[in-house]
Design a protein that fits this description.
Layout: E1 27-28, E2 36-37, H1 40-54, H2 66-69, E3 119-123, H3 130-137, E4 147-152, H4 156-173, H5 177-181, H6 187-196, E5 199-200, H7 202-223, E6 231-237, E7 243-249, H8 250-258, H9 268-279, H10 285-294, H11 298-310, E8 325-326, H12 351-355, H13 365-386, E9 389-394, E10 412-414, H14 426-433, E11 447-452, H15 455-462, H16 472-475, H17 490-497, H18 505-516, H19 518-525, E12 527-529, H20 552-561, E13 569-575
Helix pairs in contact: 3-13, 4-6, 4-7, 6-13, 7-8, 15-18
Length: about 575
C-alpha cells in the first residue's frame, strides 16, 4: 500500500474504505484550520465527513464539560475515586517522558563550539530518547571528537524501546543510498512511528524485522543455556566507529526479541480496541472533558480527541489507511495498553517551540508536533552519521549503576527527578553519582543536572493551608471568574487546575532547599549548586510573559493545557 508523505501534505479528502486523493494539499479549511485540500472540489466532496470535526459541539468557543452541562457531580468527586487524588487510569509505564527535551551540553554557553576533547554523557535515569536526540541533534557541525553516551533506566520497556530505536537509526545510517531512495517513508518518519504511533505501515515492521531483529536473535541464540539472572553484554559495531553496547540479564535478552513481533492473532483492529479501552474509557469521560476544557483553543481539543481515538502521530487530515500493523513495542504486556489515558507525545517536547512550528494547517497540534519531532530526528540522524558516537545502555536501579561506571569520566550527569523525595532523594543521588562527574581540573564546565518535579508541591502541602488557595487575582487575568465557588463548576475546576501557574515558585523552592539542607549536602559531598544554570532554565515550564504582554494569554493557555506541572525546577551542580 502506498504511504503518502507527511512532509508534502496530501489532500485530506479520504475516508476509511475509500480511495485516497494523491494530490498535495494546498488549501486550508478556513474554519478549523486542521486540514488541507488540493482544491475546492475535494473540500466539498469531503465535507460530509469533515463537518463531524469542523462543526463538532466541542469545537465551539463556549463548549463546556458534560458534568457541568448536566448539573451533576463529576466522577472524581464521588465514590472511591474521590479518595484517590491522582486517579491514574490504564498502564503505568512512562514511555514518552514528562518534561521537555533538553540539550544537556549547550556547548555555546559552556565548553564552546571549538572544544576538542572527547565528551562522555551519563543519563542515569534516562526515560525515553528525547534528551539524547536533542543533544546530538544540537551538536555543532565542526565537532569531530568521540562522544560516549551512557543511558540507564529501571523500566525494561523503556530500555527495550530505546535500544530498538537506536539500532534502527544506526542500521539506517549504514544502508545504501539505493535502499533509502526506494523507502516509502523517510527514515525520520519510521522512527517517529516506532516511538509514538500505536500502529504503523507494514513497511516499518519489515524494517524492524529485517534490520534490528537479526542483531538481537543472534545474541539470544548464543545465551539460551545461560541462567536467567546472568548479566550479559553485547556490542554491535557500525560504520565510522559507532557502536552500541547493551547490558541485560539473560531473561531480558529473550524478552527483547519479542518486542519486534506483533503478538500472535493480534490484528490492527484488536490493538486499537485494546488501546481505546484506556484512552476512551466511558468511565473516564469527565476526566477527558476536564483536560479538554483547559486546552488553548477549541480545535486543539478536537486534535487531542483524534489522537485519543487512533493513537497515530501524523497530521489530522493525513490518510490512515496504510497504518495497518500494530506497533509491537507497545503490546508486550498481554492484551493491555502500557500507558495511562493522559499520556501524550507532547509531554516530551517544549510546547512553545511546537506551537511556533510552521504548518499548512496552523490549528493542527499533532501535525505541528510531527513536523517538529521530524526536524529534530533529521538533525539527530545527520549528526549520528558524521560523528563517532558510542552508546551503552543498562537496565538497573540507579543505586546499582555505580558498579558499571568509571569515576571522573562524564562531562554531564543527568539524573531526571530521581532526586525528588519520593525516589532516591537529593543527598543519596549526589552521593551515588557525583563522583562520576569530571572534576573542575578536568573540565570546569562539567555539570550534574537534577530535576525536581514534586519539590514545590510538597513544600506547599507542608506549609500554611492558605498556600494551596488559588491566586484568583492573578488567574482571572487569563480565565473567567467562576459563577460559583463550587468545585463542580467547570470554571472553578479550571482555576484550581491552573493554581500552580500563579505560585511564587522561588519562595517555595527556597523553603525546600532549607528543609533538605542543601548547604550541608554541598559541604558533605564536595559539590555546589551553580549560581546560574548554564544548561537548562531553572523553571523551563513557567510563564515567560507577564500579564498584559502580547501573547501572554496564549502562553498561559498553552501551559495550562499541557501535561507539565509548570513547577518543574532544574538545579545544576559542580564538583568542588
Amino acid at each position: 500500500m502506498i504511504v503518502p508523505s507527511v512532509l508534502l501534505p496530501p489532500c485530506s479528502n479520504w475516508m476509511p474504505g475509500t480511495s485516497v486523493c494523491d494530490r498535495q494539499g494546498i488549501k486550508t479549511c478556513g474554519n478549523c484550520k486542521l486540514v488541507v485540500y488540493c482544491d475546492i472540489d475535494c473540500q466539498r466532496a469531503h465535507w460530509p465527513e469533515h463537518k463531524k470535526a469542523c462543526r463538532s459541539p466541542m469545537a465551539k468557543e463556549h463548549w463546556r464539560p458534560a458534568w457541568d452541562r448536566e448539573g451533576r457531580i463529576p466522577h472524581w468527586a464521588s465514590g472511591v475515586a474521590s479518595t484517590n487524588w491522582h486517579n491514574v487510569f490504564g498502564g503505568s509505564k512512562y514511555l514518552w517522558g514528562n518534561t521537555p527535551a533538553v540539550d544537556v551540553l549547550n556547548l555555546e554557553r559552556n565548553e564552546g563550539i571549538d572544544y576538542k576533547e572527547d565528551i562522555a554523557l551519563l543519563f542515569a535515569a534516562s526515560g525515553d530518547l528525547r534528551h539524547v536526540v536533542r543533544t546530538i541533534a544540537s551538536l555543532p557541525h565542526n565537532m569531530m571528537q568521540q562522544f560516549d553516551v551512557t543511558m540507564n533506566d529501571l523500566e525494561f520497556d523503556v530500555v527495550a524501546r530505546n535500544t530498538i530505536l537506536l539500532l534502527l537509526a544506526l542500521t539506517i545510517q549504514d544502508s545504501t543510498t539505493a535502499e533509502a531512495s526506494t523507502s516509502p517513508l523517510s527514515n525520520a518518519e519510521a522512527l517517529i512511528h516506532v516511538w509514538y504511533s500505536a500502529s504503523f505501515p507494514s513497511y516499518v515492521l519489515s524494517q524492524l524485522q529485517d534490520r534490528v531483529k537479526p542483531l538481537i536473535t543472534e545474541v539470544c541464540s548464543k545465551i539460551t543455556h545461560k541462567p536467567p539472572s546472568t548479566t550479559l553484554g553485547e556490542t554491535w559495531k557500525f560504520s565510522n566507529g559507532r557502536t552500541l553496547r547493551l547490558v541485560l540479564k539473560q531473561k531480558d535478552w529473550l524478552r527483547l526479541a519479542d518486542f519486534l513481533d506483533v503478538p500472535e492473532d493480534m490484528s490492527v483492529e484488536d490493538a486499537a480496541a485494546i488501546r481505546r479501552t484506556v484512552t476512551l474509557a466511558p468511565e473516564r469521560l469527565d476526566y477527558r472533558d476536564r483536560w479538554y476544557f483547559k486546552d488553548a483553543s477549541p480545535f486543539m481539543r478536537i486534535a487531542k480527541q483524534k489522537f485519543q481515538e487512533d493513537g497515530i502521530l501524523i497530521p489530522f487530515g493525513h490518510p490512515r489507511t496504510a497504518f495497518d500493523t500494530p506497533n509491537p513495542t507497545f503490546f508486550q504486556g498481554g492484551k493491555s495498553w502500557p500507558l495511562d489515558d493522559k499520556a501524550d507525545p507532547s509531554s516530551g517536547w517544549p510546547v512553545l517551540d511546537v506551537r511556533q512550528t510552521s504548518s499548512p494547517a496552523p490549528q493542527d497540534w499533532y501535525g505541528k508536533l510531527f513536523i517538529y519531532i521530524h526536524n529534530m530526528i533529521e538533525g539527530f540522524l545527520n549528526r549520528l552519521q558524521k560523528t563517532k558516537i558510542c552508546f551503552v545502555l543498562y537496565n538497573v536501579d540507579a543505586r546499582e549503576l555505580p558498579q558499571h561506571l568509571k569515576h571522573d569520566r562524564y562531562a554531564r550527569v543527568e539524573v531526571a527527578n530521581i532526586c525528588d523525595g519520593g525516589y532516591i532523594g537529593i543527598r543519596n543521588t549526589l552521593s551515588l553519582l557525583s563522583p562520576f562527574l569530571q572534576s573542575p581540573r578536568q573540565n570546569v564546565h562539567a555539570t550534574f543536572i537534577t530535576l525536581f518535579i514534586n519539590a514545590v508541591k510538597e513544600t506547599v502541602k507542608r506549609g500554611d493551608p492558605g498556600d494551596e488557595t488559588p491566586n484568583m487575582r492573578f488567574l482571572t487575568n487569563y480565565l473567567p471568574f467562576p459563577q460559583t465557588l463550587s468545585m463542580n463548576d467547570a470554571d472553578m475546576m479550571r482555576i484550581w487546575d491552573a493554581r500552580d501557574l500563579a505560585l511564587d515558585v522561588d519562595k517555595f523552592f527556597s523553603r525546600y532547599m532549607v528543609f533538605c539542607d542543601f548547604e550541608q549536602i554541598s559541604a558533605d559531598l564536595g559539590v555546589e549548586m551553580k549560581k546560574s544554570n548554564t544548561i537548562v532554565e531553572k523553571w523551563p515550564t513557567q510563564l515567560k510573559l507577564t500579564v498584559g504582554q502580547k501573547g501572554a494569554k496564549e502562553e498561559f493557555r498553552l501551559n495550562l493545557g499541557s501535561s507539565f506541572t509548570n513547577i518543574e525546577r532544574y538545579v545544576e551542580w559542580r564538583r568542588v
